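[Q] Does anyone have a clean C-alpha cell version of this?
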Amino acid sequence: MSLTNLHAQPTEFLLQALQTGNLTSRQLTEACLKRIEQFNPTLNAFVSVDAEAAIAQAERVDAKRAAGDTIGLLQGIPVGIKDNMCQTGTLTTCGSRMLHNYKPPYNAHVVERLLAEDGVIVGKLNMDEFAMGSSTETSAAGVTRNPWNTQHSPGGSSGGSAVAVAAGMVPLTLGSDTGGSIRQPAAFCGVVGLKPTYGRVSRFGLVAFASSLDQIGPFARDVTGASLLLQAIAGHDARDTTSVNSSVPDYTNAVTMSLDGLRIGVVDEHYGQGIDDEVKASVQDAISKLQAAGATVKTVALPHAKYSVATYYIIAPCEASSNLARYDGIHYGYRTENFDAQNDSLIDLYCRSRGEGFGPEVKRRIMLGTYALSAGYYDAYYLKALKVRRRIRQDYDTAFADVDVIVGPVAATPAFEIGDKSDDPLAMYLQDIYTISANLAGVPGISIPCGLSSTGLPIGIQLQAPAFEETRLLQAAAMLERQLKWTNKPATAL
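[A] Here you go.
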C-alpha cells in the first residue's frame, strides 16, 4: 500500500486497511509523525509530541493483531489530545505559563479510554489559554495557524485539535467545548467537530474552565471518524459526578442508518444582521440538499437565544473565577521569582504569581466573574443569568417537540485574519453567537463542512439535537455529508 496519501484517506479506509493487515499501526503512526515534522513548525498545532511512546503503542497494537487478539475500536489509529486533558507524566499546560511545568500523576478518563480502545496518542495540541478564546491566539505556546490560509485563525479554543486533523497530521483528535470551542474551529478548518450532550463524556482529568459548560468531544475528517471516537470515549464514570449513568448507543452504526422523514428546524434569527452572505448561502444550499433527499423543513423559535452571549459571559467567568482560584503559586501553578520572604507578604506572593502566570484574557474573565459573584451583585448578575439559562433550555425542549434537528450556521463569517479581533474582546466573544446556546442548554451539536468562501476558506454548518440524541445527530450529519460530497478535501495552503 502507498503511504504517501494516507493523510487524505477517509476513516473507513484506514480502519479497513488496518483490519486487513494492508496497513500497520506503526506505518500509519510514522506517516503521521512525518506530517507533523513537516508542517507543525508553520502551523503550531502540536505543543508536544512523544514519538517514541506513540511508536511503542503502535507496535503493541500490531503485536496484538498478529497474535489474533481482540483489537479495540480505534484499531491503532493515531490520536492527538488538547493540552487541557491530563496524561500521566506528560506536560499539560492548558496553553498557560501558570502550568508551564505541570506533569499530571494520572490520566484523564478519556485518555484511559483511548488507550483501552487501542488508540495511539501522539501528542498534545495547542489551545487558547485555559480554553478562553475563539482564535488560539492567547496560548503561551504561540499562535496556531489555519492550514487553509496561514494568515487566518483556525478558531478556538481547540484550534490545535482542528488544525491537526485538517492538515492530515493525525486522523482523530479530542478537543473541549465550553461555548463553541469544538464546533467553531471545525468550521474554520473544514473538518467535523462534535460537542456531545453535557454528561455523556466524563470530564475527569479535564482541567476545568467552566464546569457546568465544559464538554470533551471529537474532531475527525468525516462523520464516521467522529462517531468512532465518540464511541470510544462516551460512557459513565463515577469519578465525575456530572457523568450520566446510562447505556451508550452504537454510534458507529448510526452513520450507516437511513433517517427517513427527517424534520429540520431552522431559526430565522440565525440569518439576521451580521451574517456573511456566503455563509448564509452555503448553509441554505445545504438545507436545500437535505430537502431534496426527503427532509422536511420547519421554522422554529428560540426566542431567548439572543441572550445567550450575555448569559454565557456571566456564567462562564463566574465559574472560571472559582476554578482558577487554586492557582496561587503555593498549592498549584507558577510561582514568581520576584518575592522576598523577609519583606513581602503572602498576598504579594499570590498577586505576583497570578499576575505573571495568567495572560490578559484569563485575567479579564477572572475579574468579570469575581465582580459578578461579589456581594451585592450575585443576584443581579449570576442568579439572573441562571434563570435565563433555564429559559434557553426550555426553548430547545419546545423546538425539539416539533423537529428532529435544528440546522444553522456555526459562525457568522469564515475564518478571520490573525490579529483582526485581538484588541476587541466583544467582537471575539461574538464569534460564538450561534454555538453558545447549545452549551447553556446542554444539548449536542456537530459542525460539518458545507462549502468554501470566494477566498477559499471553509464554511461549516451546525446541527443540534435533543439531549442524549447523538445517534440522531450523527445520522443527520452523515446524511448531509453524503449529499454535500465534501469528505477529505485537502487544506489548500498545504
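[Q] Thanks! Anything notable?
[A] Residues 378-399 form the longest helix (22 residues).
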